[in-house]
Sequence to fold (77 residues):
Amino acid sequence: MTLEQVLEAYMALEQLTPEELKERYSLDQMIAEGVYPVMEDWDAEETFQEIVQTVDDIQVLFQATAASGNGFIFYVF
Fold:
């Protein structure tokens, strides 16, 4: 990702509210597709809060990266 792409992603994440996130993603669908394993004591709201925290953490990372004038290199193996 170039610096410009990092800035664009950061700005998009900055505007994303937990309510909008909840509307855009179906936890039931993610479970059905195997994204989240369902354990015996699974709690949908707790899982959603973990997703919100992860999005917040990604936003902080993108903000720090953009502030330092850097981009990202993604490597998937």
